[in-house]
Structure formats: structure tokens, C-alpha cells
Amino acid sequence: MQLGRKLWIRSLVHVAAEAVPFFWPMRIFVHHNPLHELEELPFEEAVKVGERLFGGKGYLRRAQALKLLRNGPLKERHLKTKVRALAQRIHPRPAGIDVEALLYTLLTSERRPWQNRVRPDLPPEAVRTLAQALQEDPKAACDAFLRSIGEDLTLYEAIDQVTGAALGELIDDLVVKGVMDFLDEGQAAISMPHREQGLFQAWKALARHNLRFRLKIGPHFRALVQRFSSPEEAIEYVLTTLKIPEALWENYIRRELTRLKGIVGFIRWRQANRDYYWQRRFPADIVDYTAIRLLISLAVLQSRTRRLPFRTDYAAFTAFVRHAPEQTYLRREYFTGRAALPYAETLPPHFNRPHPFVQTYTQQKAAWEAKVFLTFLADWLEAAHLSLNALSPETILDLHALYTRVTEEEGKVWLEALEDSLLEDLLSQIRLEARPEPASPKAQVLFCIDVRSERYRRNLERLGRYETFGVAGFFGVPMAFVELHKGHEEFLCPALIRPRNVVLDMPQRREPRRENLFKRVLHDLKENILTPFITVEALGFLFGLDFVGKTFLPVGYTRAREAFLDARVHTKPLLDRLAPEEIEEVTRTLYGEVVRTALEKELGLRNVSSAQLHALFEDAVANRERSDVLSALGVPEAAHPALLRTLRETYRVERGYVELVKEKLRGIGFSREEQAALVANTLRSIGLTQGFAPLVLVLGHGSRSENNPYESALDCGACGGAAGTHNARVFCFMANHPKVRELLKQKHGISIPETTHFVPGLHNTTTDAVQLYDLEYLPSKLLPVLEGVRADLEAATLHTAQERALELGVKPEYAEVLEHAYDWSQVRPEWGLSGNYAFVIGRREVTRALDLKGKVFLHSYDYRVDPKGRLLENILSGPLIVGHWINMEHYFSTTDNEAYGSGSKVYHNVAGRIGVMTGNVSDLRTGLPAQTVLKQGEPFHLPVRLIVLLEAPFAFARTAIERVHKVRELMHKGWLNMVVLDPEERVVRRFMQGAWRVFGSVEEVQR
């Protein structure tokens, strides 16, 4: 294949794949918009395209919305306003009918046309007129069907619709098993061989001997697969063999890729993250996947040709449909479930001889559907005090068209009415009157903007002189963190950011007294009533066996285990950049060990001196053909070139790679200037530039649950799906350093008193406990202050946990909340971010003392310290986008949990340590599980687009918004509800229908 053709096919596949959003591995679950790749479209249009691509519904069902209308928070007047607007858009309008009243009657009832319900007293003329309008033309229906192939259907999906062969399910199963074997990250007992060669080559090698393919497809599959050396050749061959018109290739491939959007999304993510450990070891490529899928589909189609009334290529199938449209029509009616219920089982006998039955059937079907609709229409009209018998046939046709229009738009009506209701409730609580700040606060506390922090902040503030702030939970420190003993980087920042700095976790000398702790854990377990059974098994947690402890003692056992693990080697992050001479020394030491390993492995040489290792390293890097060191070690000179070449090619002892290593080392840590700038930006963005308290707590957040593959989904989105502990610690080490404080004062105008100390901690959102770290660095004079703060933290923990317990359905007692969190059979350890609906950017005085029920993101911001609006732009372009992703993940997981969410956890199995499947074989399930967004099958989360309330002068806010392209696009395309609260004009404005509109004065919205 020519290079140009190969590149064209690769670009075709990559463009087709763009519709599928990334899917991150579960251990670093990142909330994202399931329709992220469609955000350039208006929201309503994207929902329609998403339904076509992924089969997912984008709005609440009417029955669900009605419960919100009856029980709150959806308000009747807002629904009526939206219905009025819909009625005004309908043309032509049925004569003599109050369309608005009729529409409201429809939406506030659960009446729908039911297939098995027909009234006997329907007007015959009305039935006849509507049936004539509804009767289908088999040929026209088949023409539309053919046009959908390559757009909405693959060839085998089209064949399934006329045969019921379920080829698509078979192809999916074969693709899943083969590809997931490759993607496995250590779960499989036996690893797939040859993975280092890449996805396509490894799969090809496996397919040569795979019994499953032989049984399901046939012996010809092996020869088919082995004829291609590259995936691009395979793709072209399959599409050509299937005779798919080249103009349809891109859309055809797109449809293939959306069949398994979880696996495809994960491969796309891996391919875009080439530093990912498993991608470096075993590279996966979306072109490889496409080739595999197309080869399997071709083989399946060819293996089924003898059983079908046509050859299995596009040209033959098209010819069959055009030659026999009536037969095709009857087959599709039957196998897709489109047939009218009373007549469905009469169809199969007429498949081969459709004449004259097809004409009779289309008439019967149209008459039946007309009767079903008219039965519904009669009920609908009676509820609106109208009579079906009083309407002309023309009016009935208009009402049928109206009903069709309403069913297309009612989801949007309910959505906007719910959003207006929630916005009204939020604005009615806002207060701009200045409240006195706590005089000389006992402590200031930085929380993540996460909605779960709102409850804790409120409960802590009620206990006394506390000033709290909300900021993205990575605290403005994007970094790649290498934890002690792990050896690989973890990106602790929003997924939007790729960190440039690496922070290493270094051991800190400290006596952990592990032996004493071990004895205490033993003693506690022996005191338990289950001593004879539990003690031995509970000790297993020290060696990886903790089943019994988790089952019988979820609280006591887990606390003991955590206490032991917390006593591991104490660490301190390495924050400072390495000096040039340190980089050179580390590089020489590193490569000295590489060369030592090479000499031992290749020549069996040991006891080589460090000087010789370094000299040989220099020879390899300088591209020399011989080495005095090798001669001194007794290596024949003729063997020098081969060995030096092996060092360069196999062990990467060559100039280019050495420079890459040095560049990597240069990325370790931050300069003092960088540290000061990061601290300054964070403090300034939340308005904390003066009046520092003696203690400033910096609390990241994380979750704690057992047997929960979705645990990282409960962690911090701003930390890339990890807990915020490391970011909090790093920020505090920076902020406490004397030289950083000196730079803060000199270059940034922020003077932090010597008496102020920053303390990192973690808010466990599953138990609401707060743990503080690095207290050994706390000045002794602050210990009394710390004790008082700790007591208040414990009280705030109890209040917050009791508040959450009511939503979780457990007793409002802390012991019950703990047991709920540590119970490894619990499918809902906490509600997480479910219920989020708003994002407030502004001063705390705007929301202080308001009970926002843990449903609102709170980002501190004071426009008075941001004259150019740059800090606001950072908030809009970072934390707000993350909030939008979280909101959309919850939105679509609620509106269609099967298509956009991941279904029930009860049926989940962990797959390859990267995600979950439903049952033994399925796509990787994306989105959130039912237990996160649904309660007893009904929405717990309110699926609305994020309401952004920004407190700042309007002109100032509008300028900042317009500078951030992504936010401007989301706002104009209807993905966000943007509201500006101007504290100086005391006016609220909302962006609606492409323009800013005055929503009301502060006094008006507070009524």
C-alpha cells in the first residue's frame, strides 16, 4: 500500500473516532461530558445526534418530570411559561382550539397512545382520514432504509433488521474478548502474548490459533487475517470487499466505532497519553482496533452467506432490497418490532410471497395505529373539556402533527422549566448585604469547590470564628506525582492540564513504632468476641488476606488497618529543582547502573568499577567503535562495535535518550519563583491576600469505600480522579517556606506573618472525618490553637455526617455512617456529587449561612483584587469546565443510565483493572452507575445544565467570559446557564437565546 493511501485511511479513522469521547481507566476516573465531542453543536441538536450515535435519551421521561412537578422543585408557573412559548412556535395551529391549554393538559398527564388500547366508539371518518395519512409505502420505506446504511447502520446491522440474525451481537462479543485480552493491566491469569508488538499484530498472532474464532466464524478466518501486514491494508480490503461506496467510509467507520464506545474511548485516551505506562509497554491504536473489528465483521458476514437470501455485500444487499421491497418491508416490520401488535405473527408466512398480503397489512397497520392514536386523542381532549366528535378530519390531522411536534420538544420544555425553578430558588436565597467577617478568625480553611464541601463549610462556620474558602482541589499546583515505592507518575491536576513539573515522594527519617502498633492491633482483635475465628484471618490484612475482617468487623477492622498503613515510612515531597551539577551526577549514576546491568547480562562481567562504567558510558554516547574499558576487561576488539551498538540500541545509552533523561530530571520540582507564583495565584484567586489567621488549613478531599470500582469517581476531579492529599501537602510546604514567603512579599505584594502556619489535611467525604498531616512541623505555640480547631472539626464532622445520613437512608448517628462507609457490600457508600446543579463564583458573603444542601460548587473569588480579570479567566477556563464535565456526566447518566451511564453495580464485573463490564462480556461501561444517580429506579440527581452564578460587575464579567473561548461556546450553544450578579448595580442578568437579558434587581429576585 502506498504511503499516501495509508495516511489517508489513518486520517479517515481518526476523524471518524472523534465522535467517541475519551474514557479514562477507573482508578483515575475523570468525570466528562458523554457528548463532549459534540459540544460545538447547540445542546438540543447534540442530544439528537447523541441519540442517533449512541442510542441514548437526553431528557427526563414525562412520568419522571411529573413527580418533580408534584413533589418539587419544579414549579407550575415556570412550566406554564415554557408551554406558552412552545404553543406560540406551533404553526399551523388547529382551528378553534386553545393550543396552550391543550398542551398543558397533555404534559401534566401520563396519557400516551398504547398499542393495545382502542375505543369502540371512534368516528369512522376520523379513522379513515388518519389511516390514509399514516399508511406506509413499502418502497419508500425501503429507500429510506437503504439510505441509512453507512450513515446510521452498518451492513450487518441492516441485515439483522431483515433477518433477525443478531450478527452485531456476535461481532461485538468476538471483538470485546480479543481486544480486552490485549488491554488487560494485570488482572488476567495468563497474559496475551506478543503485546509489545501492538494491538493489531498481537491480535493477529492470537487469531491464528484461537479456537473461539474457529468455532464462531469458521476455518477460513485464519487465512483472511494472515494476509495483511498492516491495519490500513485490512481496513481498505474489508470496505472494498463489502463494496461500501468510498464516499460512505468515514460514516461507516464511525458507526462501527460507536458500537463499543467504552473500549474505543479507552483506546483513544491511551493513544493520546503516550506516557501512560501500559501504552508505552503495549501500544494500542484506534486504527488497529478498526482493522480488527472490520476483519471480524467481514468474516462473520461471509460465514453466514449460505443461510441468507442474498450475498453479504453492500451491492448485493442493495440489489435485493430494491428487487424485493415488499419482502424487505415485511421482514423489517417483524424483526425490528415495528409491526402492529394484532398482526405481527401473521407476517412470517408471507415473507417469500408478500403479494397481495403487503397491501392488506399496510392498510390494517395504518387503521390500527389511527385507532390507537384517536383513542388517546379522545381521552386527551376530554381532559381539556373538548370532544373528538366535534372536530373535523383536517383538525384531527393537525392535532396528530401537533402531538408529533410536542413529543420531539417536550423534553426541552421540562428541562428549561426545571432550570428556571432551581435558579429562582437559588437567587431568592442570595444576600448581598455585607455581613461582618469573623473578627480575628481562629483559623482559615481552604476547601475544594466540590459540592460536598458546602455542607462541611457551613457546619464549621456555625461553630465560631472560621473563615472558609473554596478553590479547585489541586490548589493551583499542577504536578506529576511519584509516590514512594510506586515508581510511576500520577497526574494530580484537572484532565485539561498536562503538568510540566514532577514531585517525588521522599522518605523522611522518623521512628514509626511499627512493632508497638502491630502489638496494639493484635490486642484489639483478641479482645473481640470473634477471637477464635477473626484474629488469624484479620492478621491476613498484613499479608493481603482481609476478607474476614471486612465482612465481620467493617468499622473496627478497617480503622485498625488504616492506622497500620498510616504508620508507614513518613515522607516529604521533593519540591526544589535539581541544580545542573545534580542532574549530571544523577544521570551518570543512573547510566552507570544501566551499563553495569548490560555488561553482566551480555558478557557475564561483574565487579566493574564505577570509573570504568562511566568511561564506557562516555564511549557509547560518543558513538565510538572501540573502548579502552572493554579492552581492559578482556573483551576482544572485534566485539567492541557490536557491544557498543547494543548499549545504544537496546539499553538506550545514546546521546538523544540521555538528553531526554536529563530533560525529565529538569522537570523535577519547582524553582522558588515558581513556588511563590503558584501560592500567590491561589491566594489571590480566592481573595485571601491579607488578614491571615494563625492557622490556615488546606483540606483536599477523597473518599473511602470498600469493594467499589468507582471509588476514584468519588475523589477529586481537580486532582485527576485522585485524592487531594498530596496537592494540599505540597501547597503547604511551599507556603510555609521562608524564602517563598519572602518572594511573595517582594514580587506579589502578599505578606504572610511569621505567626501563620499552613496545615494540610484531607476531608473524607464518605465519613466526613478530617485528617491533618505534617503536624510535626507545627510551631509549638500553635498547639493550643490546633487542639481547639480539632475539637471543632470533630463537631463539624458529626453535624455533616448526620445531615448526609438522612439522604443515605441510615440513622443520623455517626456510628451508622461509618458502618455504611466501611461495609464492602454497600453499593452506595455516599451520594458523591449527585444533585449538583449550580456553580457560584464570588465572595463567601454571597452564600454564607445559606443551606445549599450540598448541591452547589462554591469557588471563592473577589473581583476587587483582580483588576484585569485574569484570575477570573483562570477560574472560568479551568474549575468551571471541570464542573461542567461533572454536571454533564451526572445529567446524561440520569436521563439514560443504560446508554450514557453504566447500569446497576449489582451486575458489574471488573475487567482488566481498567473498568467494569455488565456480566461476563460487554462493552466497558462508561458513565456513572445507577446507584449514584437513581434512587429506587427514579432520579435522585436532578438532570439540569449547570447554573453558573458569577458575582462581579456585569461589564467586567462579560469581558472575562468573552475572552475564554470554551466557556463562550458553551454559553452560546446552550450547555451552560450563565448568570451575572452585579453587586454594584444590584442587578441580575442572564444569558438567554443568544443575548444578555436583565433578569431583575437583587430585591426582585429575593422575593
UniProtKB/TrEMBL annotation:
The GO terms this record gives for MF are: zinc ion binding
Q: Name one cellular component (GO) term.
A: plasma membrane
Sorted keywords for this record are: Cell inner membrane, Cell membrane, Membrane, Metal-binding, Transport, Zinc
Q: Which residues bind Zn(2+)?
A: 448, 450, 701, 716
Which InterPro entries does the entry mention?
A: DabA (IPR018752)
Q: Which cofactor does it need?
A: Zn(2+)
Keyword Endoplasmic reticulum belongs to the record:
no
Its record classes its membrane topology as: Peripheral membrane protein
Localization, per the record, is: Cell inner membrane
According to its UniProt record, which protein family does this protein belong to? Belongs to the inorganic carbon transporter (TC 9.A.2) DabA family.
Q: How does it assemble?
A: Forms a complex with DabB.
Give the protein's biological function: Part of an energy-coupled inorganic carbon pump.
Q: What is the protein's name according to its record?
A: Probable inorganic carbon transporter subunit DabA
- Which species is the source of this protein? Marinithermus hydrothermalis (strain DSM 14884 / JCM 11576 / T1)
